[in-house]
Amino acid sequence: MASASTGLAVLALAGCAWVPASGPTRHAVTDAPGGIQIVPITETVARQLLGSRSARLFSEGFGQLPPGNFVLGPGDTVEVGIWEAPPATLFGASSDIRASAATGGARPTLLAEQQVDADGRIGVPFAGPIDAAGRTLRQVEDDIVRKLARKANQPQVQLRLARNASANVTVVGEVANSVRMPLTPRNERLLDALAAAGGTRFPVSKVTVQVTRGNTVMALPLDTVIRDPRQNVPLYAGDVVTILNEPLNFTALGATGKNEEINFEAPGISLAQAVARSGGIQDGRADAQGVFIFRYENAQALDWPHPPVATTADGKVPVIYTVNLRDPSSFFAMQTFTIQHRDMLYVSNAPLAELQKFATVVYSLAFPVLNTISVTK
After folding, report:
1. Rounded to the nearest 5°, which phi and psi values hold at 275?
2. Strands (E), the chain
3. Predicted TM-score (pTM) of this structure
């Protein structure tokens, strides 16, 4: 009998060492090695994180000022109209002129359309080369009048943009049609460019808009641009608007309703929503005090509570955020705490669940021995 008891004890110890588990216990997580930051989720922590990573708005980076007066650039095509007071003969005798019928006392003459060349110039008979690139239509008109003042009789000039080739915005990415949208004096805005491209190929909630202007690159969820008119900023020549569909996701593990990678929308979700989307926590095995978020944070995100602070090669800090669902106040913090791309949500098993599994293993190992003893008696 003593040998049987000894055998049961050995089996019990063996069962304890080999009990199946879905991950570390709550105490194993909170006793993580030094350098890994253990941070309880509170309203203060949630708000501090929200403030540190708030997306910079288009209205802050690009402002609401329109690009100003339209300026010409290489490749633009213009039409020059010249009026002379009678008797006007300077342009009437020119062979490359399309002269209209005389109207009243003044005679308007339309020159052949001209394209601004690579040097940024156009040519006007009797005025010579005229600098056009980087100048407004009015500035070019005044320059032509000045150069014709001593040759034509009281000249007046009107310049019309026939074809715009330099002031364009490029729209690419997840749109119906990638386009180069010409800008006009009406000052087109971001959503105008999206409409010109035929809209997005994905639902608004799943799309991010990126605007590149020179060396400045900024991105916002399309939903934010639509809901906040201030983010529908005026566009400048050379802007590149890129529509992105980058699925954001987090991973749910442990005592949750489902263990899998779960996608979420570009505007983001809260921890409360993440727990719900992972099927909640399982009443039969979850430790309500053992809900964790594993994340790599920016070193400046918080005032870290546990020096020294370990960092990765790229300067990220490994952090384990903890939340106690037995505390009713934690449900408010969960609504403020935002889930980030590639977060890992882990819910540990309750101690009783581990004990039940241990008892099951012991019973499965001990039952054949006890049955054998009973039979041999």
Report:
1. -65, -40
2. 37-40, 77-84, 97-99, 107-111, 114-115, 121-124, 128-131, 156-163, 168-173, 179-182, 208-213, 216-221, 240-244, 248-254, 260-264, 286-298, 316-323, 344-349
3. 0.66
